[in-house]
Give the backbone structure.
Amino acid sequence: MRRAECIAMLYPELDDKLVVTIMGACAQELYDLGHKDNFFYLQHAMGLASSIGLGLAMHLPKERVVVLDGDGSLLMNLGTLATIARYRPDNLIHIVFDNGSLLSTGGFDSHTTSGTTDLAAIAQGAGLERVAKVDSVMDFGEAVIDAFNSGRLSVIVAKVAAIGPNHYGMDLQLPENAFRFKRFISSRRQT
Amino acid sequence: MTVSYENSKVIFQGIKAAGITSLSALPETWLGLLLQQAEKDPDVTLIQVAKEEEAIGIAAGAYFAGQRHVLLMQNHGFLAAINGIVSLAQLYGIPLCMLIALRGHWGEPYPWHTRGGIVTEGVLRALGIPFEYARDPAEVGRQIREAYTFSQSSLAPVALLLTRDLMEEPL
C-alpha cells in the first residue's frame, strides 16, 4: 500500500476538517491533490504535528481535526501519545503512516522496520482505546470511515511502502500557510 | 526552600487579568502552587505535557484556534523545547508567551540546576527571544500582560523569567 493512495482516498473527506501534516513526502502528496486553506503543513519541528492537532482539538470542540503523522516523526515525540490519551479529545483522528523509513532524509530504516517496534501497541499502551492497524487500502478506508462515524478519538497506524513523490516544492510560503490556516478557522468561528 | 504561596497567587491572578484562558505546563516545584490554582479554575484549560517541546505544538494549535494561551515551564524545559521554538514558532510566525522558572541562578543551592541556569539568558539572546526578569510581585501582572501583547504583535516567542526573588519565600 502506498501512502499516496491512502491520502487520495482520504482527500474528499477533508474539506471540512482541520488537517495537520508532517513534513516531506506526506505534505507533498497532500498538496499535490490540491491545497486548501484548512491544511497546515509542518515542514520541520518533527514530532509536533500531533501536538498541534491536540491543541486545535481541545480548543475547537466543534471542529474535526485530522493529523497525518509518520513513524519517524512520532518516534521523536512518543510522549504525545500519552498526552493525547490523558485529554482524549473525541474530535481528533491521528493517522500514522508507518513506512519504516526516514524517507525524506535518505531512506534510512526507522526503528519500526526491524519489526521490534510496534507503534499501534505503543499507542494502546499509552492509553489510547481506539487503535486500528491496517496494511491495505481497503482496510485503511474502512478504518477512516469507522473513525469518522464513531465520533471518538481514534488512531490509525497504516503500514505503507517507503515510496515518496518524485518532486518537492509548494507555491506557498510557510508563514502564509499559517496565516491562511488561522484565517480559515476564525472565519468558521464567526459563521 | 519554600515556594511563595502569595506570589504564586499573584502570578495566577496576573495570568487571569491578561485574559488568558488556556495554559500548557510541565509541573515543576516553583510552578506547583500556581498550577494547582489553574487546575481548580473552571475558566482555564490546563494541558499538562510529558515534555516541554509538546507544549510548543499545543500553543500553536491554541493560537490557530484563537485562544489566549501561555506556556509554563522550567528553564531546563525551555532548553529541551528549542527545536520546536525555532522550527515551528519562529519559522511560521507563531507567537509564544513563555513564563519560565529560572532555576540555577543567584542563590541556587542545588548543583543540578546550575548549568541550565547559567546558560539560559545566553540561549535566549542567541535565539533572538526578547525577555524580562520578573522579581517583584507588584510588577509581575503588568509584565505578563505586556509579554503576551508583545508576543502577539511580533508573532514571535517572548519569555518572562520567574526569578527566585519572586518564587521563593525569603529566608
